[in-house]
């Protein structure tokens, strides 16, 4: 067996031993985790040994290498939810479309709905009634709005009530205020008015009390002055009587001392 044959046989033996001994000699750990993308974590420990026998000399070379590879893919959010498009489809329809959408990291939701514009309907109905010559009915439709009802009352032209207009309608609204479309606002206004009236009445009562007290004081002063005047007159009469001397039944008045 020549030199080259020996070396080749020894190399094959070493490769065979290294192949079967690799799970024992090497520590190889591979970990891979995927979350919303591609995340790869590879950790390896590798050991390689080579022996050369040349002319009775043995050379052993050991190579230890460790390779770590980590790849992280960013989380990709779901597509954004688009709000649906709503249209009234006609200029003569008093409706309004409202839509919206919400998108989170997990799910997206969108929706929409049509809403009736009652104020728009009220204006159109009042216009049609006015065109038909139903003026009172047209005003009554508009008076269903609490702002119009309050404005009509403030203008001195109350809204119609069961066929009544003017002061008679106002009497019925005052009698049945719960029927007013602005009942809550009407109550709030009345509370404010009542507070102001009470304050004014209290101020008037205090002022009247002060005036009455002043008048009583003046009357008392006048009474005391009158008493003092009567006392002075009485003293004057007494002094005058002391000057009178009756002689032969005729009074004789002596002036002076």
Overview of this protein structure:
With 257 residues, the protein is α+β, with helices and mostly antiparallel strands. The protein has a domain at 198-257. The chain contains six helices and seven strands; from the N terminus they run H-E-E-E-E-E-H-H-H-H-H-E-E. Strands 1-2-3 form a three-stranded antiparallel sheet. Strands 4-5 form a two-stranded antiparallel sheet. Helix 2 runs antiparallel to helix 3 (135-142). The radius of gyration is 58 Å and the shape is elongated. The model is unreliable at 23-38 and 245-249 (pLDDT under 50).
- What's the gyration radius in Å? 58 Å
**Regions with pLDDT < 50 over 5+ consecutive residues?**
23-38, 245-249
* Structural class designation: alpha+beta
- SSE pattern, N- to C-terminal: HEEEEEHHHHHEE
User: What do the pLDDT scores average to?
Assistant: 75
The percent of residues in helical segments reads 40-55%
Gross morphology is: elongated
Q: What's the story with the biggest beta sheet?
A: 3 strands, antiparallel
N- to C-terminal distance: 195 Å
Number of helices: 6
Output the strand order for the largest sheet.
Answer: 1-2-3
The total beta strand count reads 7
Beta-strand percent range: 15-25%
